[in-house]
Amino acid sequence: MNEPSAAELSRRAVAHILTTLTTTSHRGVVVDSPPGAGKTTLVVHAAQHLTRPQHPCMIVAQTNAQVDDLVSRLTQDAPHLTVARLSGQSYRAPDRLQAGPNLIITTDARQAAAADVAVATASKWANVQDWHRRWAIVDEAYQMRSDNLLQIAHLADQALFVGDPGQLDPFSTIPTQPWKGLAHDPMASAVSILLKMNPQLPVLSLPVSWRLPASAAPLISAAFYTTPFRAGTTDTERRLTFAHPGLHGGAVEQTVDLAARTGWALHELPARHTRRIDPEAAHAAISIAQRLLIREATAYCEDHPTGQPLEPGHIAIGTAHRDQAGYLQHLLRTDPRLKGIDVDTANRLQGREYAVTIVLHPLSGRRDTSGFHLEAGRLCVLTSRHRHACIVVARAGIDRLLDDHPFNEPVHLNADAKFPDGWEAHQHVLHHLTGHRIRA
Amino acid sequence: MSLLTTLQQLRASERHHAQPLSRLRYLHVADQPMLILPLNRPGETARPLAVMAGCDPGHPRLFLAPPGDDDRFLTDLAEHLHTYIHSFHYATRIRPAKGEQPERREYLDAPQLVVTGTASAYYLKMLGRALRYRPVPEGTDPATSVSHLGCWLTFFAERAEYATSSLLLNLTGLLSTHWATGQSILDNAHLAPLMAWIFPPPGLTGHQAALAAENPLQHPPDGPTVDPSFESARLSSLFAALKSSRGVRRQHHVARLQEAAEDYLQPTWDLAWKAIATLRGLPPVRSTAARWDTDIRRFTAYSDHLAAGGPPQPKHDDVVSAAIRLAELEHAAASLAASRALEDDFVMAERRTTGEAFRGTVTHTEPDRTIPPQGPRQRPKRRPLITVRTNDPVRLEPNRLLAGPHDPAVHMAVLDLTYTTDDTEIVLEVRTRTSNPSSVPAVGTTLLLTTAPDHFRRPQFPSRDQIPWTHTDTGLTAPGHEPGEDQA
Amino acid sequence: MSSLSSRLGTLRGPVEPKPHNARSLAALTANPGCRRRAILDAAGVDKEALAVHLGHPLPPTQSPRALSRGAQFEAQVKDQGGAELLSLLRDKLHLPLPEAAHTDLSVLGTSDRAMNVRHARTRSLILEAAHGKGASRTMLDHPVLELTVAGRPVFLEPDLVAFQSEGIFHVVEIKSFAVVDGQAPGDKAAGAVLQGAAYIIALQDLLTRAGFSPERVSTTLLLITPRDFSRRPMASTIDARHQIKSLRRQLDRLERIEDLLGQLPAGITFDLAYDGPDARTRTATRDRDDLTKALNTTEARYRANCRHHCQLAHFCRAQAHEGQLIDVLGSSASEDLGGIDTIAAALGLADGSRAPAPDQEDLATALRHAESIRNELFGGAA
């Protein structure tokens, strides 16, 4: 009874983080933020908090899209601050960002010098000379490579690192074994090197996911996170309803109905080994999206208590590989009603949010498992983008594939064993999905 | 791997004979490379039993390290390798000043080492590590020392990690880029079975020849590990005998050990030279010479480093060196892939099967199209449009920059893709060389296009004495910051 | 249980089951999808003898000199009651006190019959230590541990030391591969951790059966190896939690081997029909075709790396080659070709001589496209 509400937990956590920023004697503070836990809000609050005694600060994000999102949130939520959006030469600002008295968009760091907050990608910051701030905020720090941090760490005295530890690790296109287990592994994430070198730094966390519905938060928390978190909303606050009932009661309809009712569905196709591109699975994903739209789904949530019609822009289809995404994009173009649905790989869906996601299971149709397909971060990204429901499309047989997973990866001395283990995370999610299975 | 390569593997299996992949080589093959076949002493780490080395296929030199007599072996091997390396120190040229680079002296050519596979390349790296910190004996020339041998082996092995470097060639790796066999990559990592698929002896299929080549007593596998059957059959008794014998008896056993090592390495020696000649016979792609030039520069720089009394390579990269090396390795891999795609038909063809490239016909052009100014003080920009139709299965995203072998300097961005049942229409915007009329090909021209090489800017890292707090374990607190300062 | 063991006994024939060791247990995790291997391992069939009899022996992979050098190194490290070992452990585990009670269990004999005795002694010493009786630090050399594999107790005789300090048991493995500048070859380290995991599991099981928490066993493996290029020993630690879980999963699966056995035709046996009891002189008389038929009732899953961990690898490879299975070409080809199993089928789809099944349409299109490009490059019929 006396348990604090989710909002209260969130508020306390943020307050604690902000206090820590101003009182800490450490040069860095790390904040672990599970999916949809208000990371951007925290960054905006922290920026305001740090600039209040007239200390301008800088923000580092990893991609241009992330920088744009942050800039747009800052200008809305903190109109009293002047924000500079630093960019590279080839950058074109999206329409929603309009330069004005409070927003400077420039390629030249000198023009950003007077701004309260300057925001840019890590690679842009790496080329900025003669710059110094008391505080830097590094967003998506778990996706930042150690070598990127090395390039920019000198720009500020202290830094707040915010990120989602459950998402994908940074990667390289080349083999990087020579450094495995060494303290200076340039491929390690910025946070892991930071904590290895400065183990005494405070690591705080945000305890509530405002994105994930109550049907998803406990599963995602248990499967992928060492620091648990809970959902900010209750079962009754998030609902998905349809204006039209399902037609023939086919598998796709059942899948869509089950997902609307429970927040999860596993649309299981007959077992078969397939290539990376499995046309049947792709078509199933498309049909599911079509049914969601044709039946005119309405999503009810705390932001839209009277309901919001589900539009293509509220739906994403997630894949493991780029060619799978390319194939799906190709299929989407054949139906104008689907225009606006995002299709992308787990890598690029990081940090994004949708009402409903449709996921091609990374292990679907495979003959063998591989480290890539088993990576916990990949599955975590794919299954934690949604506010209402997540529908997984997969070939039957993933249970056997997991059972048959060989364990013969090379071991590197002194390299930390990774947790959560991809195999276990997959097993955990699959076990849950099996209870939401519709056989096609 | 591409479906094209898989298809050639299938054919190889069906026809019992290796099938061609790329017909052009991208690495330099020297006229006189030095082939090195190391053989490790069983049960030891980077401690050779023998090394067969030399530049003349007809005259291999065998360096033997009979247990209990390593030092002579090392001095002899060092002398042999140093003589080869130093022979490149006679001819130099002057590279004129360019940009910020001042005029420089450079060697005309560089040495090239050849090993049979990844395991041997790794072995040389470990051997280099084992030797490079050895002290240089008082009164001897460091340039011929065992320590410098270690430095050079490390240099070659480290360069071999760069996809673009030809300083240390890996034969099985290179052969596998030019031939598909009916066996797995794991099997292709051994020279004898791989060569058996490419050149099966008369009367045998590639598969039969490869199976025959698996018999370690008839075809001792390439090193550096001695095959255990061979060890039991030929070496175990000699090891035991050498332990206890002296004088003439010992010499007798050493001679037999020498014989055994020669018997073990000679077949691989002959096969390896055949492989080298075969690879040399493949015509190089255009950019090969430029890559070898870079190798020569690296060789010059390292020669200068050693001549100036520079220290051996450190045991581990420090944080800055590791970051720089990673950036360079990534750049090497990406630039090689990009230039091969534009210079090698096969690589382009592979990319067509994966959707990263396509061949199509120009159906429409707008050479004089301009786009409105981007800023207040800018003028409209010329951005010609080209429409290409292809029936290759294209998988490219909008905004991707493309280039083709017809003129690699012209980069065009994908503006739009329209799929129909049979083909795909792609609208491209020319982004570079926009004022050059030849950048817009005529309607009806057939174009091959693939993703253009990314622009590479050498990343700037802090100097070693300015490594930031995030990457050092000094445990310092914020400068000028006392706990509680802000609370006041 | 007894019906299971009699079923497995029939499969094996009238010979003693092939004893497991940590290496063979570690290999269980290498290709768990292979049903053939799972059945043979559960029944304790001697796969090497099978391969030899079928004419597909795997050439030896262990160097005799490496083995003896390894034994020398181990002896050196354990010399003088493990004095050198103890000082390494003290540094690595940050222990205050200088000595530990050292017991070498190999003095009880190394014959097979001594195993029971040694296991009993190991067990009582470990439980004594766990109860806090006796010395506060205990070092057990050559302990014999027991693990249940497919319902059958298996003795593990590790070349290692179980070390108890502050109430926690540590498994110490002595390996002869060198750790150079803090790094070891990834495959060798992986092998060592998997073997170590088998011992950790056995030790956990021993303690839990006696009512102790499995947490009394450290899941971090202590590895003693030569340092750099010398013979001087050094200690490293490896987090073995993943390997422990993985191996436990495979052991659990072997417990459920009945499902697989149920799919075999009745009366199947892999008995080599030896003509005598003496292992040194006996000859296998089983008809080879008949044995092959028996093996074919089990589903093999050949992979190119099988030879690193299964003595039957060359037999399965020959079968895969005979059956023109894509698997002989390695994993990337199999991945490219999706559900197609044979080389002939894939080529038939590529040249259009075979009509694709409805679910192969897409792949067939891709193959035909690749084939047309191939023809452009290399010409058609060659």
From TrEMBL, chain A:
Keywords: ATP-binding, Helicase, Hydrolase, Nucleotide-binding
Claim: Nucleotide-binding is one of the keywords in the record: yes
Keyword Hydrolase belongs to the record: yes
Molecular function per GO: 5'-3' DNA helicase activity; ATP binding; hydrolase activity
Superkingdom classification of source: Bacteria
Residue span(s) of domain DNA2/NAM7 helicase-like C-terminal: 200-395
InterPro entries, sorted: Coronavir_polyprotein_1ab (IPR050534), DNA2/NAM7-like_C (IPR041679), P-loop_NTPase (IPR027417)
Protein name according to UniProt: Helicase
Organism taxonomic ancestry: Bacteria, Bacillati, Actinomycetota, Actinomycetes, Kitasatosporales
UniProtKB/TrEMBL annotation, chain B:
Annotated region (Disordered), positions in chain: 363-382, 455-488
Source domain of life: Bacteria
Protein name as catalogued: Uncharacterized protein
Organism of this sequence: Streptomyces longwoodensis
TrEMBL record, chain C:
Compositionally biased residues, Low complexity: 1-13
Top-level taxonomic group: Bacteria
Coiled coil: 237-264
Keyword annotations: Coiled coil
Residue ranges, annotated region (Disordered): 1-22
Protein name as it appears in the record: Secreted protein
